Amino acid sequence: MKIATLGNASVIHTQRWVEHFRARGHHVRLWSLEPGPPELDVSPLPPPAALPSLRYVSAAPALARGLEEFGPDLVDAHFVPSYGLMAAIVNRHPFSVAAWGSDLLAADQRVGLRRARARFVLRRADLVLADAENLADAARELGAPASRVRCIPWGISLDRFRAAGERKRGAILSTRMHEPVYDLPTLIEAAAIVLPRHPELELAIAGDGSRRDELEAMAAAKLPAGRFRFLGRLQPETLAEWLARSDLYLSTSLSDSTSLSLLEAMASGAVPVVSDIEGNREWVRDGDGARLFAPGNAPSLARAIEAAMADDGWRESARKRNRGVVEARGDWTRNMGRIEGLFRDLAASRRS
User: Fold this and answer.
1) What angle do CA 178, 181, 185 make, to 5 degrees?
2) Average pLDDT for 143-167
């Protein structure tokens, strides 16, 4: 197939997606307003001449010319309000749009002009991909025809993310980006409660983002010296090593569909202590594979950490349960094969 992918080339999820379909033998061209690594071979779109808010609309004519020259069997757009909007404006069919979570779940995306924009995109798409049932429900509620919505988690590499070697008791790891939706201040406030009470616990915070300086300053002021560290953005291989030797995985996210970070932790044996939100409950429940806590509530998170650490036998059973769940439902190779099959069906419908 000739696939025209539209997405943010600087994001690892876009890069993995494009590389997968290229490795499967498809001719994939990626159009993006953002630069990517040189090996990704991005087709750049022109930046807006005027308002940044019009960047996707203003780039649509250049994209239309590029698609006319390329002649794709399928247009594959990522993130509804941005590249999904661009695909809907160009209106070349068939086109698929993949929702990533916050584009449909965030409250500010579900009102006023933003709601109208989402409805415009979702009604024009021939296929709407959602990686969780709560995201699929949101797409249907916003106007996507139910027959066009497919819920398929992207999944993770089960070969890369697995238990390996000795696990360090009391090692706690967060891998979420340093952005407001992931609410890392609550994580630090909870650590300020549990670290002084449990000398065996150590906290590592991976990732990066706009709030990193603020979070580092907060941690330095509130947490015991030598008991925490910021790791920065880790390469996938290094991230897998950290997860394989961590006892617990923490996520304080306020909103999520299927969190790939959660699946990576589950596959690696880092027992999740995560916010009690719908996206997480599709994979774990309190006492069944994880400990859950009230979002934004540091004392609740502290109690969940202590409950998880209090029972060694429960953590071991949770590790076995979680690995089995991800093998059954979160295998990247199997799930991307399902998406490839949907793309082939769309391409066949175009040819016919």
Assistant:
1) 60
2) 95
pLDDT tens-digit map of 89-136: 999 999 999 999 888 888 777 778 889 999 999 999 999 999 999 999
State the Cα–Cα distance between residues 344 and 134, nearest whole angstrom: 26
Say whether both 91 and 239 belong to one domain.
no
Residue 49, pLDDT > 70, answer no
Edge-to-edge strands, sheet with 27-32: 42-44, 27-32, 2-6, 74-78, 95-98, 127-130, 149-151
209-252 pLDDT, tens digit each: 999 999 999 999 999 999 999 999 999 999 999 999 999 999 99
Question: What's the pTM?
Answer: 0.91
Residue 164 included in any domain: no
Give the integer Cα–Cα distance in Å for 104 and 137: 10
Residue with structure tokens 């290229």?
22
Q: Are 67 and 133 members of one domain?
A: yes
CATH number at 209 reads 3.40.50.2000
